[in-house]
């Protein structure tokens, strides 16, 4: 994909006094040929303003992680490699559930970053599905206004193609949570949800589906969803869930289904940060 400036422009950022056109919400992605990244001097900072359309500014944390940090993008590139190149004899997972033991572990932040990194790969498209029907946060992270989504599909039988929207990142689409339902556990545990997971996994050969799940010990439907996907990515926040809670979740899901563990809010030391400075070249692609 292009440089970060192109992504931010599509996300509703621009110089003061400018307005951007509303991005297309068509589900069909555009296939762009990859171009080599050239090292360039940092562009002068400009004041960022919100455009007058359906999309607005990204969540500040996500914006900083993608735009201002060389360390975080490299971590997610490593995670991408781990997912796309599993051990010999294992298949690449098409459907991945991202969850945590308890709330406020940063699972949605991890989901968003993983989706961006997968979409920036040479051959993959990514679809993020917000399954946290109680406390949805994926769509707002990308500056997308409230719109119908997963709950509306499961409850009202709305056509799926009308609900999936393209984000401002090439090759990255989002299925929002939709209007909050009164029965989230029943919807996500339904046969229709199971059929949806299977349909999304088989519809596109080059697309990875990432499900942002409710926290494991808050919503019973997280257990059901974990049995329908190819693998589970566990987010653990430093100072968050305790070892007994994490172990119980591993026992419930099955360690063989855990494709990775992300330690969130881990404090890096000066040596680790200095080692990442040499990767500034790669940061230009964000």
List the helices and strands and how they pair.
Layout: H1 4-10, H2 60-67, H3 71-84, E1 95-100, H4 107-119, E2 125-130, H5 138-141, H6 150-156, E3 165-166, E4 172-175, H7 184-188, H8 191-203, E5 207-212, H9 221-226, E6 231-237, H10 243-253, E7 258-264, H11 270-276, H12 280-283
Parallel strand pairs: 1-5, 1-6, 2-4, 2-5, 6-7
Antiparallel strand pairs: 3-4
Folded structure, characterized:
With 286 residues, the chain is an alpha/beta fold. It has one domain (4-28, 45-283): Rossmann fold, CATH 3.40.50.300. 35% of the residues lie in helices and 13% in strands. It is built from twelve helices and seven strands. The protein has a seven-stranded mixed beta sheet, sandwiched between helices. It is globular. One of its GO terms (molecular function) is ATP binding. This is Exopolysaccharide/PEP-CTERM locus tyrosine autokinase. One of its GO terms (cellular component) is plasma membrane.
């Amino acid at each position: 994909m292009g440089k970060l400036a192109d992504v931010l422009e599509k996300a509703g950022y621009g110089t003061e006094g400018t307005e951007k056109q509303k991005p297309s919400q068509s589900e069909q992605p555009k296939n762009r040929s990859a171009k080599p990244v050239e090292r360039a001097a940092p562009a002068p900072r400009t004041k960022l303003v919100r455009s007058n359309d359906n999309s607005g500014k990204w969540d500040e944390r996500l914006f900083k992680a993608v735009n201002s940090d060389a360390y975080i993008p490299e971590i997610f590139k490593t995670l991408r490699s781990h997912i796309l190149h599993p051990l010999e004899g294992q298949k690449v997972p098409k459907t991945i559930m991202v969850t945590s033991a308890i709330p406020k572990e940063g699972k949605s932040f991890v989901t968003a970053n993983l989706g961006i990194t997968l979409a920036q790969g040479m051959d993959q498209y990514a679809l993020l599905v917000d399954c946290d029907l109680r406390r949805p946060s994926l769509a707002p992270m990308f500056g997308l206004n409230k719109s119908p989504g997963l709950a509306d599909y499961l409850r009202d039988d709305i056509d799926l193609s009308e609900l999936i929207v393209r984000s401002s990142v090439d090759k990255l689409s989002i299925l929002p949570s939709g209007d909050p339902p009164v029965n989230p556990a029943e919807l996500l545990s339904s046969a229709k949800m199971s059929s949806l997971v299977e349909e999304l996994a088989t519809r596109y050969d080059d697309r990875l589906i990432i499900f942002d799940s409710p926290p494991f010990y808050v919503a019973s439907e997280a257990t059901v969803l974990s049995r329908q996907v190819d693998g589970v990515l566990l987010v653990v926040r430093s100072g968050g869930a305790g070892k007994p809670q994490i172990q119980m979740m591993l026992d419930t899901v099955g360690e063989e289904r855990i494709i990775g563990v992300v330690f969130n809010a881990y404090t890096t030391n000066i040596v680790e940060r200095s080692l990442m400075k040499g990767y500034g070249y790669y940061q230009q692609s964000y």
